[in-house]
Amino acid sequence: MPPPRAINPEDKQRKRDSILDAASHLWSTQTDCISSMDALAQASGVAKGTLYLYFRSKEEVLLGLHERDVTNFFNQVIARAQQPEPMQLEELGDIVVASIRRSPTFLPLSNLCTGLMERQLPIAVSLEFKQRTFAHLDDVVSALQQHFPTMTCMKMMQGYALMLGLWQLLQQHGLLAHDELPEELLRLPCNAAVDSERFLQILHNALCNLFTGLLAQKDDAA
């Protein structure tokens, strides 16, 4: 028998979080099942009818997971930036790496949801998500400007683009472990496949180098 339906806002948020937790687990262990609302209802212990009260489609579930990952990352950056001790760029890279380690959906869904918002989600849902995200990004930039006065939203978005680009190029076989890749691929001189730890090291260094250059500029030109 499914648990009773949540009524007050706190219970509704807990229910929503439990659904997203189940979706994250399915993504990590049985990626194909995330396409089934039946499987998600079973994994979350929520009746299918109740599930549709929170998410109208599997695409909205994935967007919800993505938004939670982004929100957690933003909150971590703000929490560090609000501390009085001077912040170094390496620390921003550390927070990025920690966020990726903490959530296996962080980068894959960042990439996937861009396409979902363009093709498979209602325009209103996509616009509301973007409005919330950019409003939160404004808060992040304001906090970071206490340590990096030339930080802007555009510079942060360039860092985000670097994250996605490197993930697409270096972790494009993300559903396979590095040692499961075809030997023919690994032998190619220009093979760019790297294991997860090497990828995180490359990403950390690339972000630090990018922001070192961007923050030396007084505006967003170039």
Write the layout of secondary structure elements.
Layout: H1 9-29, H2 37-44, H3 48-54, H4 58-81, H5 89-102, H6 106-119, H7 123-144, H8 153-170, H9 183-187, H10 196-215
Helix pairs in contact: 1-2, 1-4, 4-5, 4-6, 4-7, 5-10, 6-8, 8-10
- Biggest sheet, in brief? none
Q: Could you name the CATH class of the largest domain?
A: Mainly Alpha
Integer count of domains? 2
Shape: globular
| CATH homologous superfamily classification of the largest domain | Tetracycline Repressor, domain 2
CATH architectural designation of the largest domain: Orthogonal Bundle
- How does the helix and strand content classify structurally? mainly alpha
**Strand count:** 0
The number of distinct helices, counting runs of at least 4 residues, comes to 10
Q: Cα-atom Rg, whole angstroms?
A: 19 Å
Helical proportion, percent range: 55-70%
- CATH topological fold name of the largest domain: Tetracycline Repressor, domain 2
Compute the average pLDDT: 86
Distance between the termini: 59 Å
SSE order, one letter for each helix or strand? HHHHHHHHHH
Q: Would you identify the regions where 5 or more consecutive residues have pLDDT less than 50?
A: none
Strand content: under 5%
